[in-house]
Amino acid sequence: MNGLRTAPSCPEKPVDVILDTDAYNEIDDQFAIAYLLKAPEKLRIRAFCAAPFFNPKSESPRDGMEKSYHEIIKILRLAGREDLIPVTYRGSETYLPDEETPVPSDAARKIVEIARQYTPEDPLYVVAIGAITNVASALLTAPEITDRIVVVWLGGHALHWNGNREFNLMQDVAAARIIFGGGVPLVQLPCMGVVSAVTTTGPELIHWLRGKGPLCDYLCDNTIAEAESYAAGKPWSRVIWDIAAIGWLLNDHQHLMYDRAERAPIPQYDHHYSPNPQGHFYTYVWYVKRDAIFEDLFTRLTKN
């Protein structure tokens, strides 16, 4: 697979996966971790990496990364997968200072180390659902892994959206520009305008998850508590869009979402895309089948 010529397609056979996540930032990363854990027939986990984030839930990007690291471990314990704790790594403590300088971290080093074991014909899938700093640092450190990985990133808004002020992208625009402009095989799951359709409600979570085990109870109760912290006594729904990044790897025959090949645009520092007629082809998810992906998620989470 050459990222300069070919947009990635959903793998037909089992593949190896690294998940890079700012797990403490929101309540949906936890669902994505659980979804990945519950798809062993197709997705073989090589590592988890904690991504930085900075918002009211953290004191700094470093603090956000550290909290995310511990949240990943919490989910693994709830799932009874303590065996994966040794392959969970701390990521970047800061964002990229520019487009040429990587930020060293255990996560970036591990991405490089693992990626070197793969080939363009049999790549490693790196799924990122936060700021893409760790992945960009790995590519800057070892450009030779560019054709040995496929990056599946939930970040940025839809190409037709008015502006591109999306949290994962805004945190580290330099890293996003490396991913979009460096020729790495790329799948983008845009947030507003595409995966923003992946929402759920308290009654739905209670019906499908509550009482189905410690992990299901945590996912259900954590989401409801977060929503009721700002919408108590009111109707609410919560976007759980991070599951779509895992769903793309399970999207045989496009039964969970639709994608198409596009020329990779250029994310700009003033938060818009610039068209790039010379950009490499990448895979752009343009529609997610909301009911289908939640049916798959709930079935897997509650299966004995």
Explain this structure to me?
The chain has helices spanning 29-37, 61-78, 106-115, 133-141, 167-171, 173-181, 202-208, 214-231, 243-249, 290-302; strands spanning 15-21, 43-50, 88-89, 124-128, 149-154, 186-189, 199-200, 238-239, 257-263, 266-267, 273-274, 281-288. It is α/β, with parallel strands linked by helices and 304 residues long. An eight-stranded mixed beta sheet has the order 3-2-1-4-5-6-12-9, sandwiched between helices. It has a two-stranded antiparallel ribbon with strand order 7-8. Strand 4, helix 4 and strand 5 form a beta-alpha-beta unit. The longest helix is centred in the first third of the chain and has 18 residues, at 61-78. 48% of the residues are buried. The model has no long low-confidence stretch (mean pLDDT 96).
What's the gist of this structure?
The strands form three sheets. The chain has an eight-stranded mixed sheet with strand order 3-2-1-4-5-6-12-9, sandwiched between helices.
Q: Could you tell me the mean pLDDT? A: 96
Instruction: Provide the CATH topology of the largest domain.
Output: Inosine-uridine Nucleoside N-ribohydrolase, Chain A
Strand content: 15-25%
Coarse structural class: alpha/beta
Structural domains: how many: 2
Largest sheet: 8 strands, mixed
CATH class of the largest domain: Alpha Beta
Runs in which pLDDT lies below 50 for 5 or more consecutive residues are none
CATH homologous superfamily assignment of the largest domain: Ribonucleoside hydrolase-like
Second CATH tier, the architecture of the largest domain = Alpha-Beta Complex
Radius of gyration: 18 Å
Q: What is the 3D form? A: globular
What's the number of extended β-strand segments? 12
Strand order of the largest sheet: 3-2-1-4-5-6-12-9
Percent in helix:
25-40%
Distance between the termini: 37 Å
Q: Order of helices and strands, N to C?
A: EHEHEHEHEHHEEHHEHEEEEH
Number of helices: 10
